[in-house]
Design goal:
Length: about 290
């Protein structure tokens, strides 16, 4: 009789920790926004950090010990990472969809265009344009004084991210060939490019708030700008931390030319972040 063998994970407390960590993170975020008290948020962030270090550390130790080193587990990791990236695609698709709806439907309707033109009765003097420099309710939400020049800091950041994808790909190919010194050198460059991106974006945000009047309260343009670029910046931050972890593992002698899915998964994620930025650069900054 043929027997089909399936991998059944051992009992673990980490899913329970994850549930509590996500609860405190969500509740803490809401409590901070509404009441301005970040205690629950700090607890949630600390629990998330503990979860990542503990759970991923356990998986790494199992991998280094040669446990569960088979094609079935490798395939499950690949499917899991693939679905995770797909969920991230849908996450950003929702925000890009909101931007498209606002630009091509809501703003023209408020100016009296289309089937919903009756909305123009609310603010008769409002004229449709993008970006919206003079929002309909300017008394409460004054528009920005100016917009970000796409060919200055955003273009520099585009070059940084595209370059980082190239250097990461070079490191990946070197790992496949077993050239560990080459991998380490190019990973240092990749991490430096990721950190440089975050520094430039931080300077851009400071410039937007202090010199351009472009804030989260600067009407719908300010809100969509910071939601899209802010969430992307959060993903770049997470991706940079992941790359630093991968670099530290390589320095410790982890991974081989045949088995290195942890590194490969981090590369998938970084390339995804790069592609999202290209979309942001075109649809948020240029068009």
């Amino acid at each position: 009789m043929n027997h089909q063998h399936y991998y059944v994970p051992e009992q673990s407390h980490w899913p329970i920790v994850a549930a509590f960590a996500l609860f405190f993170l969500a509740a803490g975020t809401a409590h901070t926004i509404i009441h301005g008290q970040p205690l629950l948020l700090i607890i949630g962030l600390g629990a998330i950090a503990y979860l990542f270090v503990g759970w991923f550390g356990e998986v790494i130790r199992e991998n280094q010990a040669g446990l569960l080193d088979n094609d079935q587990v490798d395939r499950s990791f690949r499917l899991g990472m693939g679905w995770f990236i797909f969920s991230e695609v849908m996450f950003f698709a929702a925000f890009f969809g909101a931007l498209f709806y606002i630009r091509h439907f809501s703003v023209p309707w408020l100016a009296g265009e289309g089937a919903k033109g009756i909305s123009h009765m609310l603010w008769p003097a409002f004229e449709a344009s993008w970006p919206v420099m003079s929002p309909p309710d300017s008394a409460r939400f004054p528009g920005p004084e100016e917009t970000v020049d796409p060919w200055h800091l955003p273009f520099i950041n585009t070059l940084l991210l595209v370059s980082s994808s190239i250097t990461l790909t070079i490191a990946h190919h070197a790992l496949k060939k077993g050239h560990r010194a080459v991998v380490i050198a190019w990973m240092f460059v990749t991490v430096a490019l990721g950190v440089s991106f975050l520094v430039v974006q931080g300077y851009e945000y400071h410039e937007a708030y202090t010199q351009m009047g472009l804030t989260l309260h600067a009407g719908v343009y300010g809100a969509t700008f910071f939601i899209l670029t802010g969430f992307h910046g959060m993903h770049v931050t997470l991706g940079t931390i992941i790359l630093i972890v991968m670099l530290s593992r390589i320095l410790r002698g982890h991974f081989s030319a045949r088995r290195h899915f942890g590194f490969e998964a981090s590369a998938w994620y970084w390339h995804f972040v790069d592609v999202v930025w290209l979309g942001l650069f075109i649809f948020v900054y240029v068009l």
